[in-house]
Design a protein that fits this description.
- By secondary structure, the chain is an alpha+beta fold.
- It is built from eleven helices and twelve strands.
- A hairpin with a 4-residue loop joins strand 1 and strand 2.
- Helix 7 packs across helix 11 and helix 8 packs across helix 9.
- The termini are far apart.
- The relative contact order is 0.09.
- InterPro entries: Diguanylate_Cyclase, GGDEF_dom, Nucleotide_cyclase, PAS-like_dom_sf, PAS_fold, Rev_trsase/Diguanyl_cyclase.
- This is diguanylate cyclase.
Length: about 325
């Protein structure tokens, strides 16, 4: 009677191991597979008979052998559990993800627990790997991270031009001024304004005015370096911080953007519309006490450019 109960219990245990919704793999210290449950069969396509007594790294060559060996050595010596999460290593076994809710995942994200298995002398002879499918958790966290990054981007971006908005650009300007005071590296600032923009809006309408603003923003993007910092300062006014740039090179950049804007052609109901812009340039000198003074100096250059006929580049006399 007791033997019958014992056999029944063993059958129940085997049935549970085969059908539990986690992967169970037992390997010896030479990485030879001893146990391979139903979860592993279903996701790998390899039956137990195909893997038992075969080295795990021969079966799955993308598992880093040195990394796994170090895990086994640590477990053997310390006789403690070890873990690896999907954030440390996306997966141990590269399985496809089959859950409908995670169908957009290229593979199954996994957490893995390593359990030491000892013999009657308390010597670790095998290690049990428990593989958890955490694809849902991983994707949800990644989606939340992407959403936060998008929100951060939107918080400092002008929606029309995709340039930095005024608030964030001012922060960048303050940061760059501080960097200059610390390193004494040159830095220049360009402010530009679309000429007669009110007439453009009054004549052709605000939607067309938005097209013009977008076109000017694109000209700035096409003529700036990755390290430069562009922004929409407000309305039809734009700004550009030129990092590590002295006055003369900054004037050349402003002139290049001016020519690019002058070459633009916009179409309004068959009519070809041309525009121009005026530019003020200022570099940081001993007379520039802070970032606000730097902005005012560039703005003064812009005023001079407007006053001297527009569609030109002027330098602030500071």
């Amino acid at each position: 009677m007791s033997a019958s109960i014992e056999l029944k219990d063993i059958h129940w245990l085997i049935d549970m191991v085969q059908n539990i919704d986690v992967g169970l793999v037992v390997i010896d210290l030479n990485m030879n597979v001893q146990v391979w449950n139903g979860f592993m069969e279903n996701h790998s396509g390899l039956l137990t008979a195909h893997v038992v007594d075969k080295k795990l790294n021969d079966l799955f060559t993308d598992i880093p052998e040195a990394w796994l060996q170090q895990k086994l050595d640590t477990i053997r010596v310390l006789k403690n559990k070890a873990f690896t999460t999907w954030e440390q290593r996306s997966y141990l076994f590269k399985f496809k993800s089959y859950r409908p809710i995670t169908s957009n995942a290229e593979f199954m994200y996994q957490n893995v627990t390593f359990l030491p298995l000892t013999d009657i002398t308390n010597k670790v002879t095998q290690v049990c790997l428990i593989i958890y499918d955490v694809t849902d958790v991983a994707l949800n966290k990644q989606m939340a991270l992407e959403a936060n990054q998008q929100l951060e981007y939107l918080s400092h971006t002008d929606t029309l031009t995709q340039l930095n908005n005024q608030g964030f650009w001012r922060e960048c300007c303050r940061t760059e001024y501080k960097r200059h005071t610390r390193t004494q590296q040159p830095a220049s600032l360009i402010m530009l304004d679309i000429d007669h923009f009110k007439n453009i809006n009054d004549t052709y309408g605000h939607p067309f005015g938005d097209e013009v603003i977008i076109g000017v923003a694109n000209s700035i993007k096409e003529n700036m370096r990755e390290t430069d910092i562009a922004g929409r300062y407000g309305g039809e006014e734009f700004t550009l911080i030129l990092v590590d740039t002295a006055l003369e090179p900054a004037k050349l950049v402003a002139e290049r953007i001016r020519k690019s804007i002058e070459s633009l052609t916009f179409n309004h109901l068959g009519e070809q519309v041309k525009i121009t812009a005026s530019f003020g340039v200022a570099h940081i000198t001993a007379n520039i006490a802070n970032d606000q003074s730097w902005i005012k100096a560039a703005d003064l250059g812009l005023y001079i450019a407007k006053d001297s006929g527009r569609n030109n580049v002027a330098v602030s006399p500071h």
